[in-house]
Amino acid sequence: MPSLALTFDDLFVDNWLAARPVFDAFNARVTFCVSHIHTASETQIAELIFLQADGHEIAYHSRTHPKLKPYLDEHGLDHWLEHEIDAGVAEHRALGFPATSFASPFHQSTAETRAACAHRFAITRTDGPRSVNTNNIEDRIYTRPGPDNTVDNLGFADIQHHAFPGWPWQIQLLDRIAEHGGTGVFTGHDIRGRKSGPGFYSTHRQLRRLLQAAADRGIRFQTLSEFALGRNSTTTDSTETAPNPAAAQSATR
Ligand SMILES: [Zn+2]
To answer: What is the pTM of this model?
Structure first.
């Protein structure tokens, strides 16, 4: 079953919520990979609960988003696991977000971080889309996660990104997913109503174009954990995939 796992990183919660109509128009469920949740406002937490109740996944993206190599050089693996993984995972879970999936900050990982994360997460998103070329596209179209439950990114979900290779390449990736029949992971950040200033993002119009191009090719949309746990997003009943509907009902919006 060809599918696309769209991921959006960091904490652009207000703008993610504003993009709901775009996702809903395609029945697309995606993964929001959240860091810095301890700095989120009550409104932002309520918005994340709302997105989760829609069937989107709230995944883990570290606690403070440090660069990996200098952190490991200075503090070591155990310190990273304690402070950047386990402490933040506990914060997510206390708020009702399961932290089933992990997106490595800056797409950085080592053999030891990947092995340690394999014990903690059903899936870890690792290398970024810049290392994709015509020779390794199919290596990144998955029927199941790779060693240590990892998947590398295939494409960009940030169309406004200086490294975005252009729509012909984007369409080629979607064609290969459709032919191959597996899952490709695309990575993005912010989603804005229109083009505005610097940053990594897609506009609603650009996101709609991507979703339409995928839908035109029979590609379905899955969250990272749906992919990792072997569930295809064939259901149209979002309540079935919402882990915490009771919490959503208590949300203020
Ligand atoms: Zn990030």
So the answer is: 0.91
